[in-house]
Structures are given as C-alpha cells and as structure tokens.
Amino acid sequence: MIHSIPIHTTPPHIRSFVTRVRRLSSTQRDALERLGPQFKLPYMNTQLDYKISFGRDAPLILEIGFGMGTTTVDIAAQRLSDNFLGIEVYEPGVGALLKLIEERQLSNIRVIQHDAVQVVNHMLARDSVDGAHIFFPDPWHKARHHKRRLIQLPFAKLLASRLRAGGYLHLATDWQNYAEQMLNVLHAEPTLVNISNHENSYILRPDYRPMTKFERRGLCLGHGVWDLLFIKRLESSVSS
Q1: For the chain, what is the total number of helices (H) and then of strands (E)?
Q2: Is 82 annotated as a binding residue?
Q3: Most buried among 36, 44, 136, 186, by the most CB within 10 A?
Q4: Domain residues for 180?
Q5: CB–CB of 84/18 below 8 Å?
Q6: Contact present, 50 and 128 (Cβ < 8 Å)
Q7: Are 165 and 219 a contacting pair, CB within 8 Å?
Q8: Distance between CA 200 and CA 220 in Å, rounded?
Q9: Do 39 and 110 meet the contact criterion of CB atoms below 8 Å apart?
C-alpha cells in the first residue's frame, strides 16, 4: 500500500493540538474495529501511493483536522470523482467519520490518525495534491498560545510544496484575529495567490463547503466567518 521511499525530515515543530484522552462511544469503537482496516491508513515515514491506497487514480484532496467528519463526508459525497484523505489526531473523530462513511456508502475517503504536519511532510510527495481544506482549526485565542496555531509560514510553505500547480488551499475560521494571521501567512508564501476579487481579502463561502450547526449558530449571534482561497501559481509564474 505504501512505497518505501524515505523523505527528508524537518526539525521538531510546536504541535497545534494537545493530547487528550477522549472516551470512545460504542458506535465509534465498533466503526474503528470493523471499518478501520478498510479505510484507515497507518502513519509511516514513507511516501503514500495514492493509487494503491484508494484503488484508483483520481485528484487528491486533503481534509486536515476534520473533527467529527460531517463536513468531510458531505463534500466527498458531492465530489465522488475526487479522493479525500482526512487527517485527524483524535480517535473519537476518526471513529465518527468511519461510521459516516459506512452510512453514506462512500468509497472515496481514507483516514490517517496522526499529526498533520508530519503526515504532509513525510507521506505526501511534492506537487501531488490537488487541494487542501483546513476548516475551523483550533484558534488558540490567547496571545501567548498563538505560536501553537497550525497556520504558520513554515507549514504554509510545506503544504504549498505538496500542491500541484493550479492546486488550491481553502481555509475557514470564525476568529477574526486568526483570519488576519492566515491571510498574512499565505500572502507571504510566494507560490500562492489569493483568488479573492478584492486583493488581500476573503471570499464568500463556496457552495461545496457546508455550513456547520456551530457556524450557523454563531452567525445568528452576529459572529463572523472568514473563508480564504489561494491557488498555487503555475510554474512559469513562480520562476519568472
């Protein structure tokens, strides 16, 4: 399932999550036991062979930090011609997503339960990913914790290196301060370009990203939500 091709490693990074013991429900545990062997991929320090892992050759979309998996399955059900690789560290979320995969009868999702930075760095080849979704990552809202935010320039550079020319990166957050940081970070990566109609700005929520119940509740309370969509420049544009 996996090529034994080692990839250069990077220095240790500050994790954007904390290790918590979260209790599995009986349905989540059952899904992990029954469906894990089919849909869950092991983390390894080697490149992933997408065609073998999914049983077909199709565009690859990353879903980083998918939570309980509802958004992931909704998008994957809309886009059956794409392969979706979901990355999540918390086991209950993995179990919940596996259960949803079975309920929706989807075959275009695979899951890795591990730190996303290490997965992207070690398992994904350069110029091999067609799109990446990072929706509502932990904002670490206290200023002293901002260093733990996932969207930092080193990770943006790493993720951009895995995108194909013309591939996209779609982020969303409901914290304005984090949205501003995301915007600054992505604009600092020269291989990415903002597709917003307004330079240095955000986009309206694309139709393919479903609105979560928490997002809907926040909007009713007057909270904002910010979507960002960047495209990797064509090689000729980067080199010029």
Answers
A1: 9, 7
A2: no
A3: 186
A4: 26-239
A5: no
A6: yes
A7: no
A8: 27
A9: yes
Q: What is the CA radius of gyration of the chain?
A: 17
**C-alpha span between 84 and 95 (Å, rounded):** 16
How is residue 107 written in tokens? 């075959």
Task: Quick: pLDDT tens for 44-88.
Answer: 999 999 999 999 999 999 999 999 999 999 999 999 999 999 999
User: Is 70 marked within a binding site?
Assistant: no
Note the pTM of the prediction, 2 decimals. Answer: 0.88
Q: Is residue 8 part of a domain?
A: no
Is 49 in a helix, a strand, or coil? Answer: coil
Residue 88 annotated as part of some ligand binding site:
yes
86: closest CA among 104, 60, 52? 60
Is residue 89 within 8 Å of residue 67, measured between CB atoms?
A: no
Is 12 within the bounds of a domain? no
The verdict on residue 15 lying in a domain is no
> Token digits for 196?
């917003």
**CATH code of residue 79:** 3.40.50.150
Task: Consult the annotation and say whether 189 binds a ligand.
Answer: no
How many domains does the chain fold into?
Answer: 1
Which residue is it, tokens 């799109």? 131
Active site residues: 138
Can you give the pLDDT at residue 220?
Answer: 87
In a domain, 9, yes or no: no
Q: Which residue has the tokens 């090689």?
A: 235
